[in-house]
Each structure stands twice: as structure tokens, then as C-alpha cells.
């Protein structure tokens, strides 16, 4: 329905007498899936479900847990420009994207399954954020290969796909937890959360497959 409204608006507007190009080809979809897969960890785990999970796991104050989850965002803020710099040094965005897509599921697996102290977990959270910061490379790839007349809309589509990661994966995790729990969040076990986070791990593995399938950039 929304697509029909947008199409009618375009036909009535500036593009009335122009052919509307296919903006969502296979290559663009791959780059969107890469960004979606890595950004889902930041928005879904860091943005919502990380705090109740760690609170149940470590049984400490919520402030200490929130500080630990915040390290994911700090890591992403550092990792995003760092990955861009590494891509320039390596002269290959694809190589850095593959490395990030390998490191991200490994670190996230440690984050949800590894039995360790809060100090070690804080380091893992930070490194998981750094590796997830590779989502920014999807924008660079889109900009470098897109025709000048389409780069703006393709960047917007890529950005929109990443923003969808939050509501989609947060909702999916919530549905899984609702199916496993009986009396609300207070009755959920660590194992329930770990099961609910498996889709996030699959998203990261999807990003790895996408990065491997991309042509050398």
C-alpha cells in the first residue's frame, strides 16, 4: 500500500515523464542484508534486550549492567571509523567486511554463551561493538559502485534497511521470550534469553555470507 502511494506521488511529481529505475537490484539487496545483519546486534541487543539478559545473568545492579551494555555503543562508535581506515589501508572494503562479519558472530557467541566475569564480559561487549561497526562499510560500498544519479536513493534504502533491524529483531526476540516465559521477564532464565538471541546470531552469519559473495571492491 505504501509502495503504491509513493509510486503515484512520483508519477505526479518531477518524475512524471521519466522511467522509474529498478532501485533494489540483487547487489543492492546484498549490501542491505550486510548492514542489517551487523546493525541488528547494536539496536536489538544493545538497545533493548542486553540489559535484562545481563541483569538475569550477573544479578547485579541495573546501573552496572547498563554501563556494560553501553560499551557496545562505544565500541561501535570507535569501530565504524576504524573499519573505514582499515579499508583504506588494505585497499579493499570487502576484506574488512569479511573480517568484521567473522568477528561479529564469534564475539556475540561469547557474549551470550561464555561463562565469565563481568570484567571480561565488558571487554567482549566493547569488542562486539567494534566489530559490528563494520555496518558502515555498506554505505561506502553502495556509494562507490552506484551511478551518480542513483547514489542518494540507494544510500537511503541501505540506511532504511538498517533501521528496520531494530523493530524487526526486537519484536522477534520478544515473541520468542513470550513463548518460553510464563510469568513475564522475571520468570525468564538465562537459557531462555540465549535461545531468543539465536536469530541475532543467524543475522550475523547472513552478513558473513553476503560479504563473501560480494565482488572485490
Strand tally is: 0
The gross shape turns out to be globular
What portion of residues is helical? Answer: over 70%
Structural class: mainly alpha
The SSE string, one letter per element, is HHHHHHHHH
Low-confidence stretches: 1-25
Mean pLDDT: 81
Distance between the termini: 36 Å
SS element count, helices: 9
Q: Over the alpha carbons, how many angstroms does the gyration radius reach?
A: 19 Å
The description of the largest β-sheet is:
none
- Amount of beta strand: under 5%
Could you characterize the architecture of this molecule?
- This protein has helices spanning 2-12, 26-58, 62-90, 93-113, 118-132, 137-145, 151-180, 190-196, 198-213.
- With 217 residues, it is mainly alpha-helical.
- The protein is globular, with a radius of gyration of 19 Å.
- The model is unreliable at 1-25 (pLDDT under 50).
Secondary structure layout plus pairing:
Layout: H1 2-12, H2 26-58, H3 62-90, H4 93-113, H5 118-132, H6 137-145, H7 151-180, H8 190-196, H9 198-213
Helix pairs in contact: 2-3, 2-5, 2-6, 2-7, 2-9, 3-4, 3-5, 4-5, 4-9, 6-7, 7-8
Brief summary:
The chain has 217 residues and is mainly alpha-helical. It contains nine helices and no strands.
Looking at this protein, list some descriptive labels:
single chain, about 220 residues, disordered N terminus
